[in-house]
Amino acid sequence: xxxxxxxxxxxxxxxxxxxxxxxxxxxxxxxxxxxxxxxxxxxxxxxxxxxxxxxxxxxxxxxxxxxxxxxxxxxxxxxxxxxxxxxxxxxxxxxxxxxxxxxxxxxxxxxxxxxxxxxxxxxxxxxxxxxxxxxxxxxxxxxxxxxxxxxxxxxxxxxx
Amino acid sequence: xxxxxxxxxxxxxxxxxxxxxxxxxxxxxxxxxxxxxxxxxxxxxxxxxxxxxxxxxxxxxxxxxxxxxxxxxxxxxxxxxxxxxxxxxxxxxxxxxxxxxxxxxxxxxxxxxxxxxxxxxxxxxxxxxxxxxxxxxxxxxxxxxxxxxxxxxxxxxxxxxxxxxxxxxxxxxxxxxxxxxxxxxxxxxxxxxxxxxxxxxxxxxxxxxxxxxxxxxxxxxxxxxxxxxxxxxxxxxxxxxxxxxxxxxxxxxxxxxxxxxxxxxxxxxxxxxxxxxxxxxxxxxxxxxxxxxxxxxxxxxxxxxxxxxxxxxxxxxxxxxxxxxxxxxxxxxxxxxxxxxxxxxxxxxxxxxxxxxxxxxxxxxxxxxxxxxxxxxxxxxxxxxxxxxxxxxxxxxxxxxxxxxxxxxxxxxxx
Lengths: 160, 415
Ligand code: HEM
Known about the structure:
The complex is a heterodimer.
Chain A: H1 7-34, H2 43-69, E1 76-78, H3 84-113, H4 119-144, E2 147-152
Antiparallel strand pairs in A: 1-2
Chain B: H1 2-9, H2 11-19, E1 22-23, H3 30-52, E2 59-62, E3 65-68, H4 69-79, H5 83-110, H6 119-141, H7 146-160, H8 166-174, H9 183-213, H10 221-224, E4 229-233, H11 234-259, H12 265-268, H13 285-293, E5 299-301, E6 307-309, H14 310-332, H15 349-368, H16 371-374, H17 378-404
Antiparallel strand pairs in B: 1-4, 2-3, 5-6
Helix pairs in contact in B: 3-5, 3-11, 4-5, 5-6, 5-11, 6-7, 6-9, 6-14, 7-8, 13-14, 13-15, 15-17
Bound molecules: protoporphyrin IX containing FE (HEM).
The site of protoporphyrin IX containing FE has 26 residues of chain B, from α3, α5, α6 and α9.
């Protein structure tokens, strides 16, 4: 808590994965009791996975923040490193994004004209698109956005 | 284009004043943002749902069976190409908003950020948490399947058990004794219009107060720029981080929500005369658990014919006491100076250990919600709840004291 370190984010990710695994084991257990795999999540599984998601998000953004913003801010302007490799990575990600988006539009059209597409497929495809967009932003911010750290007066006029 | 707008709206002034506002950086500050992004996702997916949902319990024919119109319209949503995923994302996000708001509250608590001058935001936050739970609860009743009707009845019963005004409040929300013909239209209006508007207004106020008072900072900032705000500008840096978090949020939630449809109404079926064995949503289970382990026939008579029954004592009074303590907290834990920096949890062993003990209490009362499945007796559960709560406090206190030492008297110094 003293600085923007990665101690808590580490445990965040660990907890997130552990809670998800608990929910998974819970599901296995329910399946064994019921003699078949139930089609719905139990209330307990919902709760465990929910906290799993929040812990995981907290951990992930914690690591991203530490990588992009550092563990301690230092006042002043900092130029981004730039470079050819990140440029190539961005180019490839954009290609991937275009491909996945095309697939997504196709799947929607298919769903409208031919019949249902599995929700799991649609959800995971959307997730892949969003993940690529996240990576794009992260790489762009790390290598191409100039950083600035401000020192502001506590009694600034914002918002009044 | 920018020049054209600038000449008319003085955008550069806006830029100088607001968009260059400094935001302190710390990972724990993202918990509030996760809560906010869950809310934004709820609004966006909610618009889609409201286009297709029919708020009515009138029976209609659907594939040869008589089912409530609301239930049939949810089946229709699920049949749209991306419909089931968006409905699932809505349900998961509601869950996440509550969980994230709760963890955000814990972070405020263990870092002392509720203290002067931030009492107002602490109170606004408590109202937000309560309202999120109520909004989520009203949403739960809308699909009108066998599961949701029963779960809503449990909540209705707890609300109606409040002496004097319980019936009144429950009937105000549900348009009479749930479920009546008027329940769903009434709950619908509250769930898609009034509660979200109120939430948006409260979140706006929460943010405005934070901008005015300035965010707390990680403690190292005191060495770098004492008495000042050390941070990154709103635009572009903070904006980028928020964009990254929002996209990552959506990626994770679409993955989970697509893979596990949260509330598959097809599986639950339309409401039937026989009540299925149903538990309330997970954030109510600790209350439900308390109800399981107190005697079911408690009755305390009050003047004017009102009574406090078990439902009230377990379902309203015990959470109510926690709520009152939370409301009073910033006024009991006072200090003369203004709090600028996050306090280290390890320098406040009592407060930190009480927080952990509270968590242990909620986890073990949640466990009590599965009393029947696990075959526990009331005595065993009481023992588990009391012993783990106290033991958690003691162990946490001892670990902090032995590992980080006693905090100095008076103002806690930084390690
Ligand atoms: C449910 C909806 C809520 C939303 C959308 C929300 C959003 C936020 C955001 C974005 C921040 C700034 C970043 C951060 O510190 O995390 C913040 C700060 C704050 N929140 Fe919340 N919050 C909510 C609930 C709560 C609750 C339940 C509490 C506690 C009772 C609370 C108390 C505070 C306080 C005291 C601050 C200032 C923190 C500081 O200066 O260090 N909020 N909130």
